[in-house]
Write a structure and sequence with these properties.
Helix content is 52%, strand content 14%. It has 225 residues and is an alpha/beta fold. A five-stranded parallel beta sheet has the order 2-3-1-4-5, sandwiched between helices. Helix 1 (15-28) crosses helix 9, helix 3 (66-79) runs antiparallel to helix 5 and helix 3 runs parallel beside helix 6 (113-130). It starts with a strand and ends with a helix.
């Protein structure tokens, strides 16, 4: 039986780095592990349009309704559903760098109160019930405050979907704070584990965070049937 893991967090929280480290760790322990990353900017039709959105092609962050934006991110995963399902059949562990919760957090951050709840419920119904995407068995939330996250974003190497230092979402600190708020609410749910990546005034070492992530995943594997 496959353990399906999603790694989540605001932009700049180190999701890609920790997903890759976890994948390498699991392989070193003899597990068959697969690593997927969303959005799949170059591999899917919807992923290409996500890249266009993040580059500002369709307007500012606030000018496109979040429900419409959510369709792009959800569509990217829908195009990838067969890939996900095939990986779950073949591997012991499948790791996703971003998954459905990313769509929920980023779009939910653009609304509040009853409107936020309606939007979140709609996205989850779309992705899980209509698009029939599998649910993660374990979601790891890498929690980093916005100030540290934006410093880490500025240090990123060039990405394949943008030539900007920060994309539309990464550049807006107030927006990222609201995204973190939604993530903190989601992380109270079952199948979620939070990893606090900032200690005092400093971001914890990558190795230290990776060790904590590996410990959580090892415990989940031991508890799997």
């Amino acid at each position: 039986m496959c353990l399906f893991i999603a790694i989540e967090g605001i932009d700049g929280s180190g999701k890609g780095t920790q997903a890759a480290r976890l994948h390498a760790y699991l392989m070193s322990k003899g597990h068959k592990s697969a690593l997927l990353s969303f959005p799949r900017y170059q591999q899917t039709m919807f992923g290409q349009k996500v890249g266009d959105f993040l580059n500002g092609r369709f307007g500012t962050l606030d000018s496109v309704h979040p429900l419409l934006v959510s369709l792009l991110f959800a569509g990217d995963r829908f195009e990838s559903r067969e890939l996900i399902e095939a990986a779950m059949e073949k591997y012991d562990v499948v790791i996703c760098d971003r998954y459905v919760a990313s769509n929920v957090a980023h779009q939910g951050a653009k609304a509040s109160g009853a409107e936020r709840k309606e939007l979140i419920d709609w996205i989850q119904h779309l992705e899980y019930s209509i698009y029939k995407l599998p649910r993660a068995d374990l979601t790891l939330f890498l929690d980093v405050d916005v100030e540290h996250a934006q410093k880490l974003i500025a240090a990123k190497s060039r990405r394949d979907y943008t030539d900007k230092v920060a994309d539309l979402q990464e550049a807006d600190g107030n927006y990222l704070r609201r995204v973190r708020e939604v993530y903190l609410e989601l992380a109270c749910g079952p199948q979620w584990q939070s990893v606090h990546c900032v200690q005092g005034s400093h971001v914890r070492l990558i190795d230290e965070i990776a060790t904590e992530v590996a410990t959580i995943v090892d415990a989940s594997l031991q508890g799997s049937p």
